[in-house]
Amino acid sequence: TQSTRPQRLLNAVQKKATRGDPRSVVKAIDDFCRHKEWAMNVGDEKGCILDSVVSEINPATVLELGTYCGYSTVRIARLLPPHAKLITLEFNPDFAAIARQVIAWAGLEEKVQLVEGASGDWIPKMKEQFGITTFDLVFLDHWKDRYLPDTKLMEECGLLRKGSVLLADNVICPGTPDYLEYIRSSPRYESRYFKSHLEYTKVEDGLEKSVFKG
Ligand SMILES: Cn1cnc(CNC(=O)c2cc(-c3ccc(F)cc3)cc(O)c2O)c1
Ligand SMILES: [Mg+2]
């Protein structure tokens, strides 16, 4: 049977990266995507911006919307303090199956809870299912038309506190115009745009960092 791109990406990780070494997993995926097959990971350039935001916040609770193959999950989880928890939601079961193996190869299973399903279904259940009060950091990287409704849902469910940070990928390419309009015009957020490039390309893209004011 034909392999899929996520399966070929996992093969590259298992061939090139060292078990238990998250940095080598990140490098193996970046090398594969730059030199073999493009894939929609946040990538190394935007990944450095992600790293700096994570290190600045030093979050105890992180929500990632859109796991894909687990690249940004590994990038974030490798920087988390002990006992910090990262919950990552992925709708596509095939992606989730690959991501679990990438996260395991990096040795980060203890810090990561991968949940399969729709963000709109799971966000209202976060408190009861996972004992979460609020998230210190949310990384939005799932379907671009879900950024805005899911942000409003997180507000309504009381999952954001004064100081919670939303970091959104792809606000230029593919683009999330309704989300940008909302978050930049809302008095409840302080937003800043980090200009960068679409992963592994010269096309403009960027991350929008927004701090919830409560
Ligand atoms: C199917 N699916 C499961 N998860 C998702 C959510 N992610 C994206 O859609 C996504 C798309 C692109 C992208 C694709 C084609 C292109 F020409 C330019 C950009 C880049 C990203 O960084 C993304 O996160 C989609
Ligand atoms: Mg993305």
Question: Cofactors and ligands present?
Answer: ligand 77K, magnesium ion
Number of strands: 7
Helix content: 40-55%
Q: Looking across the biggest beta sheet, what order are the strands in?
A: 3-2-1-4-5-7-6
CA(first)-CA(last) distance: 51 Å
What are the segments in which pLDDT stays under 50 over at least 5 consecutive residues? none
Task: Spell out the helices and strands N to C.
Answer: HHHEHEHEHHEHEHHEE
Instruction: Please indicate the percent range of residues in DSSP E strands (runs of 2 or more).
Output: 15-25%
| Average of the residue pLDDT scores | 98
> How big is the Rg?
16 Å
Count of helical regions? 10
Q: Describe the biggest sheet? A: 7 strands, mixed
Query: Overall 3D geometry?
Result: globular
* Broad structural category: alpha/beta
